[in-house]
Specification:
Chain lengths: ~650, ~300
């Protein structure tokens, strides 16, 4: 089959998945299953195309004819697009299987509408990363944003959801304005629309235009990726959306922005000055730290995971930025390795984050809450889900030998190279400080997931909802098992993955071949397993394998769920140590019942200050309103005035044209 | 890596394992002498561990497989970390990043298991341990990576003796502070008690008993020894003249560092938990001075 046919099949699958459920809407269940199965079929096709694009040395070009007004509808799958296509397709397949069961809790809603948006969302994400010219890119980018907006506002009857959707819509549209400006600036100086054209001409551009394009693209894609301080939509939109949609948005939709950054800044714009890379690394570090510290303070599982997306996008950007710095020093080999490290983390984050979101969905399915403080003891009620969640938690905390560690290890090496190259004092210290920031991020992430897993899955249930939890149906767990397995497998084959991904960079920059990239000594973990097995064997042999069960020691009082540590108390020391970053305010009121020493009621409130809202968004909003109010004066409401405006504008334009 | 290499790793791990209760015993003895007590015999740690290992393990009703698995995970993580420090022969699998993250692996499971019995003590220990880890790990990375970036490799074998220069003195002070924090000693934590609300590490072990507790105690001793061995190897490595001399000198140097730890512990008081950032930021400053001295 030739590529065009496969691509048409892919489109047909998704369009069928979007439309057919409308015909079946009488039987909601059937509509849902149909929609999801078409999504699985479409994503599988995409996976196949992605693999072909990644392994073939020549990019695949797909021409779909001349149906757009100014340009062709054409697609292009090189290594980079192929890699992102694989990432999106992999997560989409598993999430779609999961959705068949999960969406039943929304049984009363309009599932055909969900299916429509869902299929279009998957399709447009895939088309965004394979578009071959900027018009096609922008059209599908906008469609992707709208489809995801309607998925976020699926439970629109709740006011909070509508509000979150609005913030999402506004933020991403501001982003789109900047992306469009960047792309049109780029195309404007070339007179062509497709990527090959743009890449060829970018060498002739002057530095000022290049810098302007860089800044616009950074703001535009940064908004979608959730770079601090443009991340505020993320923690609102993710909890509002159904959990399977959050898994996709967080796991793969954010990555389309990373794709945009890599495509535009490394491929199309050519090599920039080293400060571009520096800016991206610094933004990455800030995003990683702010994201993870904010996540620690959250007790809503989905919002916690959303903040971790900010963190991981930061880590990915550190890799991309390092790569840009190396390119600016004309060192293609370390640059390719750093880019590969960033892309490896893209894949790893897609896998463990969607795993964690799907597990959270299972918890919600079983308990109807995602508040950590109400959970607890789930490890006994939901043994499979808890192992899966633990796998994701270990991976995201960069604990070896799982995949999160594998990519962060490579990133450490790249940052150390930055320092070791000895280009200037700034970079010597910068590289080591980057490593330190990465270590701090890792330690905070570990603390956060000890909290998230420990409080919600271990010890005693804290509410009736958690007490009554039962393991979710098999078809939900089935779709998560491959993700968990991938977490472990990708940790083991990190060397092969890195070598594969470095080829993408070679293809982008037509650089020299990359020597074999080393991996962390994973053999040490075989020894680790071996020691555990020996110890276990020794215990069994000595006949001491059985544990005796007894009460927990509670100073003589029988322990109960109210005496357990809570998520708020778990994060208290960190809240206090990182006070300058978080600005917490607390109030404690004690109710005394006549007796001065024995309070009968204590109320405790603690709020985390929102620095970005207070110091960035509120002033910006205020000044926008202020300026608009000043402009109001020209809106007199009198038609004569408006005719006058038009007349003056016309004269100015005529003068302008005459001069030109 | 062939079977032969695995064999060598196991042998080195076993050696450190056998040696580490002795180090602990010596530190305890020195502490006692400084405090004008007779103190327990330097072999007491062996007796304690053997006693614990013989006894039955009792766990809470609320615990799951995580509690049962954690002692094995912690022990193996430290055992493996110890086995990969190159001593008298180079080891192809020695890597400083993996070394640091093996500690993170053990800590992750220990902190989870502390939350399991649903008692506030464990939660307190776990929460504080993770907070301290967020301060310790960056300083550890800062101190070690200053040398790594200079030498240009993460192989611990090539890093051996990388701190033998004036800049190394500052890195050594920074990393010594990290060692104090990681081994749970005064002024960060108090290893001699679990009956105060100041406890961190002991708080996490509170619900463990019998062989599980023995294994965790042993793991903590191994951790202490390998941190000391690492410091010795980085800053004043024993010369490899012949194997017996090497081990003798290494042992003497490790014991000497243990002596310093005991001295710090006896001459300081425990700090308030929330003053720890100041201590560890101090450590970070020493590491940064070292980096500046080395590169500029």
């Amino acid at each position: 089959m030739n590529n065009e046919t496969v691509w048409i099949i892919l489109l047909v699958f998704f369009v069928a998945g979007a439309v057919i459920p409308y015909g079946l809407n009488k039987n909601r269940n059937l509509a849902l299953v149909t929609g999801c199965l078409f999504a699985v079929a479409g994503s599988t096709t995409a996976l196949w195309m992605g693999v072909r694009g990644l392994v073939s040395s020549d990019p695949i070009l797909i021409l779909m004819g001349n149906i757009l007004p100014i340009t062709n509808l054409e697609f292009y799958i090189d290594g980079l697009s192929g890699f992102f296509l694989i990432t999106i397709a992999l997560v989409s397949i598993l999430t779609s299987i999961y959705s068949i069961q999960y969406m039943k809790i929304y049984g009363q809603e309009n599932l055909a509408w969900w299916s429509f948006c869902y299929n279009l969302f998957l399709l447009t994400m895939m088309l965004v990363v394979t578009a071959n010219n900027i018009i096609v890119f922008l059209i599908f980018w906008e469609m992707m944003t709208l489809a995801s907006y309607f998925l976020v506002t699926f439970s629109f009857k709740r006011e909070q959801v509508r509000k979150a959707g609005f913030v999402y819509l506004v933020m991403t549209h501001i982003g789109t304005v900047f992306i469009a400006s960047a792309l049109f600036l780029l195309a404007g100086s070339q007179g062509g629309w497709n990527y090959a054209h743009l890449a060829a001409g970018s060498g002739m551009m002057n530095d000022q235009t290049k810098n302007l394009i860089f800044v616009c693209a950074l703001i535009g894609f940064g908004t979608k990726a959730g770079i601090v301080p443009l991340h505020i939509w993320l923690p609102q939109a993710h909890p509002a959306a159904p959990t399977n949609v959050s898994a996709l948005m967080s796991g793969v939709m954010l990555k389309t922005a990373i794709y945009g950054i890599v495509r535009l800044m490394i491929d199309l714009l050519g090599t920039g000055p080293s400060w571009w890379g520096a800016v991206i690394i610094v933004l990455g570090v800030i995003s990683a730290l702010v994201g993870v510290v904010s996540a620690l303070m959250e007790h809503d599982l989905k919002r916690l995971l959303a903040y971790h997306s900010v963190e991981n996008i930061g880590i990915i950007l550190m890799g991309v930025g390092t790569s840009m710095v190396f390119y600016s020093w004309s060192m293609p080999v370390p640059a390719a390795i750093a880019l590969a490290a960033g892309l490896f983390h893209v894949l790893n984050h897609a896998i463990f984050k969607s795993l964690l979101f799907l597990c959270t969905g299972s918890v919600y399915y079983a308990t109807h809450t995602k508040d950590i403080e109400q959970l607890g003891g789930l490890i006994k009620k939901m043994p499979v889900t808890s192992i899966l969640f633990l796998t994701g938690a270990i991976s995201i905390s960069a604990v070896p030998p799982f995949n999160g560690f594998a990519s962060e290890y490579q990133l450490y090496l790249s940052l150390l190279q930055l320092s070791h190259q000895h280009q200037s004092n700034f970079w010597v210290v910068g590289g080591i400080l980057g490593c330190t920031a990465l270590a701090l991020t890792g330690a905070l992430a570990a603390a956060c997931f000890v909290k998230a897993f420990g409080i919600s899955f271990l010890a005693l249930p804290r509410s009736a909802k958690a007490t009554g939890a039962r393991e979710v149906p098999w078809n939900m767990t089935l779709s998560m098992i491959p993700l968990a397995a991938l977490c472990l497998i990708l940790g083991g084959v990190s060397g092969q993955m890195m070598n594969l991904l470095a080829q993408i960079a070679v293809q982008l920059k037509a650089g020299s071949p990359i020597p074999l990239i080393g991996t962390y000594p994973y053999q040490i973990f075989l020894l680790f397993g071996f020691v555990i097995v020996i110890l276990f064997g020794l215990t069994k042999l000595s006949g001491a394998g059985k544990e005796r069960k007894s009460q927990t020691w509670g100073c003589g009082i029988e322990t109960n769920a109210e005496m357990e540590y809570t998520a708020a108390s778990f994060s208290q020391p960190i809240r206090r140590v990182y006070r300058p970053l978080l600005k917490p305010t607390r109030s404690i009121t004690t109710g005394f019942n006549g007796q001065p020493y024995f309070g009968y009621r204590i109320e405790f409130h603690e709020r985390i200050g929102s620095n970005f809202k207070d110091y960035f968004y509120v002033p910006v909003r205020k000044s926008v309103i202020e300026i608009s109010r000043k402009w109001q004066n020209i809106q007199s409401g009198n038609i004569n005035w408006y005719l006058g405006y038009i007349f003056v504008t016309l004269i100015i334009l005529l003068v302008f044209c005459a001069k030109g | 890596m062939g079977l032969n290499d695995y064999g060598w790793l196991m042998i080195q791990g076993m050696l450190l394992l056998l040696f580490s209760p002795l180090v602990n015993g010596i530190i305890k003895k020195v502490k006692a002498r400084i405090q004008r007590r007779v103190g327990p015999s330097i072999l007491q740690s062996y007796r304690d561990v053997i006693k614990f290992l013989k006894r039955e393990a009792v766990t809470s009703y609320h615990t799951s497989w995580i509690t049962s698995v954690t002692p094995y995970v912690c022990f193996s993580a430290y055992f493996v970390a110890g086995s990969m420090i190159p001593l008298w022969r180079s080891i192809s699998t020695s890597d400083v990043i993996v070394f640091i993250y093996l500690f993170a692996l053990a800590r992750f499971f220990l902190a989870l298991s502390a939350l399991e019995p649903a008692s506030a003590f464990g939660g307190m220990g776990s929460s504080r341990e993770m907070m301290i880890a967020t301060l310790v790990e960056p300083v550890l990375v800062l101190g070690l990576f200053g040398m790594v970036a200079f030498v240009g490799t993460t192989d611990l074998g090539i890093l051996t003796g990388a701190g033998q220069n004036p800049a190394g003195i500052f890195a050594f002070i920074g990393l010594l502070l990290v060692t104090v924090a990681e081994t749970g000693r005064i002024p960060v934590d108090n290893p001699d008690t679990h009956l105060e609300l100041t406890m961190v590490h002991e708080g996490m072990l509170l619900e463990y008993s019998g062989r599980q507790l023995g294994l965790l105690h042993l793991a903590a001793m191994v951790k202490q020894t390998i941190l000391l061995v690492l410091l010795v190897q980085l800053f004043f490595p024993a010369p490899i003249i012949s194997a017996p001399w090497f081990f003798l000198l290494l042992a003497v140097k490790v014991v000497f560092l243990g002596f310093i730890l005991a001295l710090i512990e006896s001459t300081n008081v425990k700090m308030r938990l929330f003053r720890l950032p100041e201590l560890l930021v101090g450590g970070a400053v020493f590491c940064i001075i070292s980096i500046f001295m080395k590169f500029f």
